[in-house]
Each structure stands twice: as C-alpha cells, then as structure tokens.
Amino acid sequence: RDVQTVSEEDVSSLEDAILTKAKKHIDGQVKSKLPQGAVLLAQLTSYDLGEITYSQEVGDEAASVEGKSGAQITYFTYKQKDFLQIINLNLKPEVKSGFKISDKATNYKIKEINQGDDNYLLRVDVRTKAVEDIKTADLLAKTRGKTSGKLQNLVKDEYHADGVELEVSHPIHWLKNWLPLFKKNINLEISYL
User: Which of the two residues, 167 and 125, has the higher pLDDT score?
Assistant: First the structure.
C-alpha cells in the first residue's frame, strides 16, 4: 500500500501559492480603489501573510493539504500630476527661453528607489519634448480678422507650427474664410504633436 504524507516541501509550496493568490487578489482590489490620478509604486509594495492555518501538519498521512491565511499589504502611491510638475521644475533650467515642457510629451520610468530615514530617493529616466510656449492672448490678437491663408502663414512663420485646423461657422458663405473680428468669438485650442 502507498502512504502519502505531508512534507515540508508541500507546506512551503502551499505558502508560496497562498502568497501568489493574495498578491493577485490584493493588487486587483488596491488598483481599482486608487483615487483618479494616483499611481501605485509597485517597487515599494510589500505583502505579509498572517498566520497560516493548515488542514494537515507535516508528517500527517494525507493526499493533500490546504491552508488559510490573511494578508497585509503595504503600498505607496503618488499623484501623476504632482510628479509631472516636479519633473518640469527640475528640467526647467535646461529648457531654452520661450519654450516649455509638454506634460503630454513627457514619458518617464522609475528606475530605482532608495529608502532614507524619513524619505525615498527615486532615480527616474525621463524622455520629454520642449515645445514653443505660445501665449494665447498674443495669438488671438494677431489672428483676429485674418483670412485662413494669412493665418496659416502667420502660425508657420512666427510660431513654427506644422499646421492649423480652422472651423468657421458663418451664415454668409464668402465670410467662412475669415476669422471673426472679436476675440470673444474665437475659440482657440493649441495642441502639440
């Protein structure tokens, strides 16, 4: 007759399986409950299993062993918007006058996190693009009352833009190529590629 007993290896692999299951379960719960704009720092997340209750002890005769435990998770988050502001603040001295860093064109990756006494030091790899800082009020003042052709030339020559998308809604057909004379009738959106 074959007799199966619970070994130390069975208990150890069960502990690993419980921890893996807890990580998946907790990760899903934590990430879904984060406030909007918050990002989880996975490198600082730690999981601690509580006391595990086993259905069988090492050496007991059994074909299988089960375990139950609670888990405690410690995690850190940061606000994406605030983090991008810190990046911009640190890179600002490197940016030429008349240019700014576009948040939409900023990509970063946290490479390393070192823990101090009461703080954390992050080493971050940042890739970003400096774009011309276009003052909306100046652009509006220069464009009102212009034809679409003059607007295209102005934006390309003075602001180094790749193009302009213009929508004019006017009941008189021949006025559709002209921008309104009053700033309040112009809705301006600036986007960066």
Answer: 125
User: Could you give the CA distance from residue 60 to residue 32 in angstroms, rounded to a whole number?
Assistant: 41
Report the interhelical angle of 136-143 vs 148-159 (nearest 10°). Answer: 140
- Please classify residue 130 by burial: count the beta carbons closer than 10 Å to its beta carbon, then call 0-12 exposed, 13-18 middle and 19+ buried: middle
Taking the C-alpha atoms of residue 8 and residue 34, their distance in angstroms, rounded to an integer, is 38
Tell which residue, 36, 44, 37, has the closest CA to residue 74.
44
Stated pTM of the model: 0.64
> Long-range contacts for 60-63 (Cβ within 8 Å, ≥24 apart)?
60/5, 60/6, 61/3, 61/4, 61/5, 62/4, 62/5, 62/6, 63/4
Contact 137, 149 (CB under 8 A): no
